[in-house]
Each structure stands twice: as structure tokens, then as C-alpha cells.
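<purpose> Linking amino acid order to shape
<body> The protein record starts here
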Amino acid sequence: MLKKILLATFLLTVGFQLGAQITFQTKVSKNRLGINERLKVSFEMNKNGDNFTPPQFEGFRVVAGPNQSTSNSWINGKRSFSRSFTYFLNPTRKGKLSIGQATVKIDGAIYKTSPVSVEVTEAVKTPNQAGNADYIADQNVHLVAEVSNGNPYLNEAFTVVYKLYYTSEIGISNVNELESPGYADFWSHLIPIKKLEMKQGTYKGATYNYVTWRKAVLYPQKTGELILEPLTLNTTVQVPSNRRDIWGNLVNRQVPKVITAGKRTIKVKPLPQEGKPVGFTGAVGNFDLNFSLNKDVLKASESFQATIKVSGRGNLKLFNLPKINVPAALEVYEPEHTENIKTNLLGMQGSIQDTYTIVPEFQGNYPIPRVTFSYFEPNKKRYVTLNSAEQMVNVNEGPVAGTSSKGQAVSNLLRPKLNEDQFNFIALETQLMPIESTDSFFGGRMFCWMLLLPFVLLLIIAIVMKTQLGRSNDPMTLRQKAANRLARKYLSSAKKALGKKEAFYNALERALHNYLKAKLHIVTAEFSKARIKSLLQDKEVNAAVIKDFVGLLEDCEAARYAPATSVRMQEDFDRASGLISKMDKQL
């Protein structure tokens, strides 16, 4: 009987120890996945531990995590505990990859997981990760580059508009450019977007909300296949979860996401050689030509202006205007070039002109030959040549070509007439004085002043240095300088932390506090809004400025627990800089 009792006791003890055994293991969502799928990796323990260290995840890129979850329950008097650290990974290469060992410290002992192998295959058409927040973000957010013409002619305008599409099921925040596209083989012009506006549109047959992020007008400068580099955005996607808050509202989960529009290939056609005019300079579009003179009757040695103007829509900044040809008796100066061009989604439109200044030397009637201008019209796929009318200039007064009215050679008219007295202002003789008759410098008044000047300067420098030293040793001055330095430091830290909500508002609040410490000579323990308001009123600071300053402090406290966008952070930073400037003037 005693043997049976001892055996039962032994079995119960062993069973209890086995039931209380500590486990720490790795679980993966799948052991085989495509390179375009995501892998969920969880490190689970049945007893709480410290100093969790994940593996290096070689061959993977961490797109989310670690997400911690803890479960603690009692069922039929038996306690069940579980704690996990979850990561979402993107494979970076194909083949057999290994999830290394994670470590944790439980009850003073170090526990390690066993390595887990997964196989990464070719990309699959439809990744099956419907319950994954990262997968939901992938399926509901798209960055698209919409190109107006993928097969333009050389120097023909086309537009590329980058639109960020997202469904109404999710939210978008903290959007900023990670990589901006380069337009190496294009003449480009970015059209400014004053305000981002949400609109509704269709993407692949489905209704989406979208925001136009960037607009660019491009003129290809080479023929063949040209690459448009991708635009890449870094954003935070707010994905609804199955959890609800205490008011019953769904709790959103914030998923960081990098999205790209991808590369686009533009096939640029060369301009046709057939029918190309001799004077063609590369103008592509639709233009008008105007050639005019500001006057056609004048005297010799007077000037007149000839203007060649091309207006319309096309590559106005990318070609040269035709030159003017005039008779040799007219002296022509270099033209003054002016432009009046606006660029929108349809390309460049406006006018360019060259204005020549021309001076006739002799009397006579001078014909100004017509001006010819050619351009290529892409819509009709043809060259167009424009010709101006011939102009006539009548010079009715002045010397006649060859000789003057008195029979003198024209060259004699250009010889300057010299006057015998015109150089009399130049002194030809110098009056010298003997050295003995001048006063001696040494021993004079100027010599004594210059001798004393170094000693006076040294005395002034000593007084200034003593005054500065006394100020620098003053405890109040030292505290004021330290607080000013901290305010500048934290305001600079806030600027660097733009886009990181919690770090930004912590730095901004510290900068405001240190500014007050410098100006009001108070310590950290005295920081209360009522105390700050009272001190600023005593300093006769404007009531509106006090209200804005206290309001900004309250906004900093509230913003750390509420969603905030990059635009909101920039506005708060500018607001803080402006308030400090206003208070400096009033204090």
C-alpha cells in the first residue's frame, strides 16, 4: 500500500513539473511563400520574461513590428499565460531562408528559440493575406503616374501627373517624398500645387479617393526609349482592426508603408526629315509670326527698332528666333531678348521676341527683307513656314552715301576737330618747396597723439573685458544664457523631428519652457499655465500673445495623444517661432 502511495505522489509531482515547463518558440504564418508575399513571425513564451532580443532576419526586410500581445486567463482554476512578439517580414531574395534564434531572460535563465526555415519562391499572382493589416494597406493604396502621351515627338510637350489613390476604408497621414523622380533627358517644369485636395476617381474600375501629389510638364530632348524615374512616397496607412475602444468605435492600426509609382518608358519619335525647311531651328507646336518696325521715316543718325515676335503654344524656350537681314548701310546692334511665357498642363504658351536697334548712316530708302520662320505641328504631322511682309525705311535727312553736299569725302566728316585750348587744364609745371621749410613730424602734436593712442586703446579694452567678465560670472546671466541655448537647441531638435509626432512635440514644449526660463527668470517647478499667464501679464505682454502662447503649450500636450500630420507639425513650428519673436519684442 505504501508503495502505491509513493508512486502516485511521484507521478503527480512529475506531471506538475511538466505542466509548469517554460516554453519559448517561433511560429511562422507559412513555411513556403512567394517573394511578393509577407511572412508573419511570432515569438511566443508561456511565462513573462525580460530582455527579449530578436534575430537579425537575414534575407528579410522588416515592414512592421514588433507588435506585443499578452494573454492572461483563468479556466477552471487553472492559470494560462502567453506573451508574444510579432513581426511582418518581406523576403528580399528567393531560396531557402532561415529565421534565426531569438533570446529572452525568464527567471534569471536565458531561453532561445530554435531556427525555422522557410522557402521563398517566385512571385505569386494573388498573395493570400487578407487578414494582414499590411496586405490590406497594399491592396487599398496605390501611387499612379498618369502620362498624357507615351509616344510624343522630339520637343513635343506631355504631362505626368502623380496621383495617390486610396479607398474610403482606410486613412492616410504623414505623407512625404522619399525619392523624387529625375528628368535627365527632358526639359521639365513642375506645376506648383497650392493645396492638396481629396477628390473621387476611378482606378481599375473601382471608386477611389485620390490626391494629386505632383504635376510636371516635360519636353523630351532625345529620341528613342527614355525612362521616367519613379516617385516614392513614405506614408502611414490607418487600417481598421477588429478591436473597439470604450465608446464602441473601431480602433485603427497604423501601418508604415513605402509606395512607388514605378518606372515609365516614354518612346520619343524623331521629327520627320521629309519636308523639313532649310531654316528650321527646332520649334514644335503651333505659332504665329509678327515682324514690325517702330518707325519707317527718320533722319540719318537716328535709330529705329525692328521686332521679331513669335507667339503661340509649344516649346517657346527651346528654339532660336530667325535673324534679321538689313542693307550694309544700316548699323545693327545685338537684339534684346524678352519672354512672356506661362506653363500649365497644356505646356508653354505665350510669346518670345527679339528687338533690334538699327541706325542708318546716310539718306535713302532701305528695304528690310522679310523674315521666315518654320515650325513642326505635331497634331497635323507637318511642317509650317511663316513669312512676314517686306518693310521699307525712308531716311530723308543726313549725308549722302559717297560724298557730302560740299564734295568732301565722307571719311573727312568723321574726323574730330581739335581746339588748341582744349588741353589747357593740364598743368605743365610743378612748384617745389624745400624740405627745410616744412614742419618736423617728430615732436609735433600729431606725433604725441599717435604715441598716446596705443595706451588709451589698451585701457579701453581692459575696462570692456572687466565688464564682460563681471556679467558672465553673474548667476542670473549664466542661467539666462543656458536657458537661451536650450531653447535654441530644442527648437532645432523640433525642426529635425518634423514628421515624428511624439519627439517633435516633446522638443517643441521643452523649447517653449526654456524660453520662459530665460525671459521670466523662473525655475521648472514654477511651470503652471496660471503662473506663466500671471508673469507675462506683469511684464505687460499683449493679452492676445499670452493667449496664443498658453494655447500652444496646451496644443503640444494634446497633440502627443492625438493624430497629427506633417502639415500640422509645420504649422505649430512656425507658430512657435512667431510667438517667440513677438514676445521678444514686448519683453
In short: The radius of gyration is 41 Å. The CA atoms of residues 104 and 111 lie 5 Å apart.
